[in-house]
Amino acid sequence: MDSPPSEPVGQADQPAVDAPAASVPRSTSPGEQVPHAATAAQLRRFIKSRPYVPLHELRRRFELNGQADDVCPVRVPEGLVFVGLPQRESDLLAELVRCGDVGLELCRDPLVPIVMGVFPMRPVVRG
């Protein structure tokens, strides 16, 4: 192969934009427990605390249980990509990418861009 099967994408040169609004709980019927749901701020903080986060780690950390082959299409500046998270969390992740907060590592081994992991785009200021 001439090129590697994965490549980083993101919007590092974009100006800062306000973070997406906090998440809205998933709809449930009366008396039903609300499942675990990550907010955009929680996703951003977790991703920025590490140099790289594979998608399976996001699923485990935020208890985003689902089928092993659940994949949701989302639109990012580079085009349509497929994320192995529930639709709500996939949309939150896409918003973080559009804001320039996180980048995506894409696997292009199949002919569609599948997200393998994420990484922070801006350095974390500490102290």
Care to describe what's here?
The strands form 2 sheets. This protein has a 4-stranded antiparallel sheet with strand order 1-5-6-2. Strands 3-4 form a two-stranded antiparallel ribbon. It has a domain at 38-120. The protein has helices at residues 40-48, 55-61, 87-98; strands spanning 6-9, 53-54, 72-76, 79-83, 102-107, 114-120. It has 127 residues and is of the alpha+beta class. The model is unreliable at 11-34 (pLDDT under 50).
Summarize this structure briefly.
This protein has 127 residues and is of the alpha+beta class. Helices cover 22% and strands 23% of the residues. The chain starts with 5 loop residues before the first strand and ends in a 7-residue tail after the last strand.
Characteristics:
alpha+beta, two-stranded antiparallel sheet, single chain, 6 strands, globular, 127 residues, four-stranded antiparallel beta sheet, 3 helices
Order of helices and strands: EHEHEEHEE
The mean pLDDT is: 76
Strand content: 15-25%
How many strands in all? 6
Low-confidence stretches: 11-34
Count of DSSP H/I helices: 3
What's the main sheet like?
Answer: 4 strands, antiparallel
- Secondary-structure-based class equals alpha+beta
The strand line-up of the biggest sheet is: 1-5-6-2
Tell me the overall shape.
Answer: globular
User: For the terminal residues, how far apart are their CA atoms?
Assistant: 45 Å
| Helix content class | 10-25%
What's the gyration radius in Å? 15 Å
